[in-house]
């Protein structure tokens, strides 16, 4: 996947998530069914996940040498997605810095603005990297280990969609009775 394709998919993944969140009622934004993160918490988590990527991509490339050189070529989007799915399947969970606090309905607008700012920054920064640089530098990921910058961007795209899909499944009316009851009560 080339840089313009990555930028386009980043834009779409952030936008699709924002639009879904924007369409939820205040209650659906803050409710935490069965101890899971609320939609607001998932939004906060995605902001927390995007910030270090943007920070690293903003740094002079010289500083990124500290993370070493990639030992192999960048993996494909599908390979990154599958590696992440495998980790989740085996019980991996978010590490402490990325765990969001409880969110309130009045935070939605502010969080969506922060999410949009992270999106704009990431797309802009991606445009400042050459194809070669996306594969030359690597960054640490708390679960997947060191990833090339290209792989980190692939992960970000998938990660946004992973959380969107999780929320969409909660909103489906054909869900089992406990899920439907939770929707009616709240």
Radius of gyration: 17 Å
Q: Can you count the beta strands?
A: 2
* Structural class category: mainly alpha
Q: Average pLDDT, to the nearest integer?
A: 91
In what order do the strands lie side by side in the largest sheet? 1-2
Please, how many helices?
A: 9
Distance N to C terminus: 42 Å
Strand content: under 5%
State the major sheet: 2 strands, antiparallel
As residue ranges, the low-confidence spans are none
Topology as H/E string? HHHHHHHEEHH
State the helical fraction. 55-70%
Report the principal-axis shape.
Answer: globular
Write the layout of secondary structure elements.
Elements: H1 3-22, H2 26-30, H3 39-58, H4 61-64, H5 77-89, H6 108-127, H7 131-136, E1 138-141, E2 145-148, H8 149-170, H9 177-185
Antiparallel strand pairs: 1-2
Commentary on this structure:
The model has no long low-confidence stretch (mean pLDDT 91). The chain has 186 residues and is mainly alpha-helical. α1 runs antiparallel to α6 and α3 packs antiparallel against α8. Strands 1-2 form a two-stranded antiparallel sheet. It contains 9 helices and 2 strands, in the order αααααααββαα. A hairpin with a 3-residue loop joins β1 and β2.
């Amino acid at each position: 996947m080339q840089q313009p394709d990555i930028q386009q998919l980043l834009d779409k993944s952030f936008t699709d998530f924002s639009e879904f969140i924007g369409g939820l009622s205040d209650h659906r934004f803050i409710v935490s069914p069965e101890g899971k993160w609320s939609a607001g918490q998932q939004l906060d988590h995605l902001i927390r996940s995007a910030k270090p990527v943007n920070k690293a991509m903003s740094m002079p490339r010289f500083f990124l040498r500290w993370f070493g050189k990639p030992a192999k070529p960048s993996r494909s989007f599908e390979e990154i997605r599958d590696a992440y799915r495998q980790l989740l399947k085996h019980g991996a969970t978010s590490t402490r810095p990325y765990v969001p606090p409880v969110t309130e309905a009045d935070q939605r607008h502010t969080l969506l603005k922060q999410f949009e700012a992270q999106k704009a920054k990431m797309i802009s920064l991606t445009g400042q990297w050459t194809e070669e640089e996306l594969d030359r530098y690597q960054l640490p990921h708390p679960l997947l280990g060191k990833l090339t910058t290209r792989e980190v961007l692939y992960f970000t795209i998938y990660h946004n969609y992973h959380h969107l899909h999780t929320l969409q499944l909660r909103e489906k009316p054909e869900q089992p009775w406990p899920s439907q009851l939770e929707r009616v009560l709240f």
